[in-house]
Design goal:
mainly alpha
Length: about 80
């Protein structure tokens, strides 16, 4: 499940971030990293941005939320 979540994120984020996620060993760690990235994007959205950059960040945030929800569901299924 980790790999499918990360694969979905690779389309929207740098390879550095994807590699960092691939090194996570548990779903809990993955959820923490996705939460941290979401906060970072939300802070950026509060600043002044061009329309294209704002659209990109909003897309990234949407994808992060969806993949975080999938990770939480997978974690529930494991328990």
């Amino acid at each position: 499940m980790n790999d499918s979540i990360i694969d979905s994120l690779t389309k929207y984020f740098s390879s550095k971030f994807s590699d960092k996620l691939r090194r996570t060993e548990t779903l809990e760690d993955l959820i923490k990293k996705l939460t941290k990235k979401s906060r970072k994007i939300k802070r950026k959205l509060k600043g002044e941005l061009g329309e294209s950059e704002r659209n990109l960040l909003e897309s990234q945030l949407t994808v992060l939320k969806a993949q975080k929800a999938k990770a939480k569901e997978a974690l529930k299924a494991e328990k």
